[in-house]
TrEMBL record:
Pathway membership: Glycan metabolism; pectin degradation; 2-dehydro-3-deoxy-D-gluconate from pectin: step 1/5
Cleavable signal peptide: none
Its EC number(s): 3.1.1.11
Boundaries of every Pectinesterase catalytic domain copy: 11-89
Keywords for the protein's UniProt record, in alphabetical order: Aspartyl esterase, Hydrolase, Membrane, Transmembrane, Transmembrane helix
Positions of transmembrane segments: 20-38
Protein name: pectinesterase
Family note: Belongs to the pectinesterase family.
Record keyword Acetylation present: no
Amino acid sequence: MPNVTFDGTSKKYGTVDSATIIALSHYFLAAFLNIVNSSPHTDGKMQRTQAVALRVASDGSAIYNCNLYGFQDTLCDDKGNHFYKNCMLEQAQRPVMR
């Protein structure tokens, strides 16, 4: 499966805008993707290290067979009605490159 990777953090972009993919279009469709937010994870001293992999803020979106990897707030299911099937969400303990 293809990887889509970004290293945004809430400190740099704000939580909702730190996502690797931000779906704002109605009827957005994603299938068979690894969606990874590979930002550095907190060492206990850093603040605002949330790293969203996918933010969906549209109506009628569908996500099929996708793996989401992030650190805290991995999925931001923001606005609208969304359908998820056979998806896996993982809060990574360290950066994930698959």
